[in-house]
Amino acid sequence: MRILLTGANGYIGMRLLPELIEQGHEVICAVRNKNRFSSKELINQVEIVEIDFLEDSETPEKIKNIDIAYYLIHSMSGNTKDFDSQEAEAAKNFNKLMSQTSVKQVIYLSGMVNQDKLSKHLKSRKAVEDILYKGDFHLTVLRAAIIVGSGSSSFEIIRDLCEKLPVMVTPQWVRTKCQPTAIRDVIKFLTGVIGHEECYDQSFDIGGPDILTYQEMMEKYAEVRGLKIWILSVPVMSPKLSSYWLYFVTSTSYKLAQNLVDSMEVEVIARDDKLARILNIETISYKEAIEMAFYKIEQNQVISSWKDSLSSGRFKKELNKYIKVPTYGCLLDKQQKKTDNPEEALKRIWSIGGLNGWYYGNWLWKIRGYLDKVAGGVGLRRGRTHPTELAPGDSLDFWRVLLADKEEKRLLLFAEMKVPGEAWLEFCIDEDNIIHQTATFRPKGLLGRMYWYSMYPFHYFIFDGMITKIANAKSEKQLAD
């Protein structure tokens, strides 16, 4: 079948795409910026079309003859005030575009909405569902609670809490019940309903076999990991304090933390397992889902992460506007160093950040990350999705990858930390094996210039030490000799 995949750069979209291709479907990926298409290894097996569903636009010719469409669009992590109106607008524009196509079925991944009192996030999910039901197509809605898999926001938050805090004083919502679902099962459900007429014009809950409180989920995670944790819940922690608690302890943004806390006070339990019986799917337990996630992590096979979404940082839409590094009105720190081993130096550049650190003065980088968190920024905890691979749009600690071209031996990063201005960090290796490392800062007013000059002594030592470590990179063979 010919399938339109919206949200192709998202956590679910990137997991779903290889399954659709493996099943022999012809896939058109809808993205806002084709230069940021994340599944580079599949780029020759799909068609790509640029669509911004927040804008009222003409239907691209490429999607007019589709059979199926996946609606995987959401805006929850981007802001706290108007994401619901944005989601409604996107759904209306989607319906309008689909009315000019031959689509027969739309598949929408939503959240469980079985309680009388819903969070703003779940109300928005239900409102989108109601809008999509007005479309000129058969709608199949899959309603999930927490999705457990390597790189999912829920898994990463539980991982951060359990790995970092052996003793936790927690809000009351840790006793709220939910029904987590393994990402592998979510993909089975999403592909299983394709063209399945029994699933047309219906909404299904999809949940795993376990109904657990958030506290039990953390305890089972600790059991799988062989950790000892002690959890004490208290009634005095307000939603705002709970949001700050999640924000400072985990890698989540404050905006996403607020929306998550709002949702965590609502029980999300499936009404039944009707769809699992229709599709003959035996769902995976929560503990097994955790074990599978760590297998992927240990094998460096994490396909996608919520941290790479643009809404996890400063970007809202376009990366391209930042790729051309400005020169006028900018302050620069330029470093050059010749390397005798350009291949290893390039590997070290491509492995920078995350668990590998920044090669020099890592404690200073950590302090800067902590200060960024205090100021409301993203901090260093986002890390990186893969230890040695980078692609445009990836998050890298408190940077965003703008360009990663190994053939040109060039890596360009843009700062998503809270600074009074805009900052770029670029690495490139020229034909003479000279590494060029350039930090560019475009200050915003007098405060921006004061910030740059106050940090200049630290920049001098950090940037010089960093390029020296990169230039002196040794291969395993050289180390053995």
From TrEMBL:
Top-level taxon of the source organism? Bacteria
Q: Which organism is it from?
A: Zunongwangia mangrovi
Stretches assigned to the NAD(P)-binding domain: 7-145
Q: Which PANTHER family match?
A: NAD(P)-BINDING DOMAIN-CONTAINING PROTEIN-RELATED (PTHR48079:SF6), PROTEIN YEEZ (PTHR48079)
Q: What is this protein called?
A: Uncharacterized conserved protein YbjT, contains NAD(P)-binding and DUF2867 domains
Recall the GO molecular function terms of this protein's record.
Answer: aldehyde dehydrogenase (NAD+) activity
> GO CC annotation: what is one?
cytoplasm
Pfam family for this entry, one? NAD_binding_10
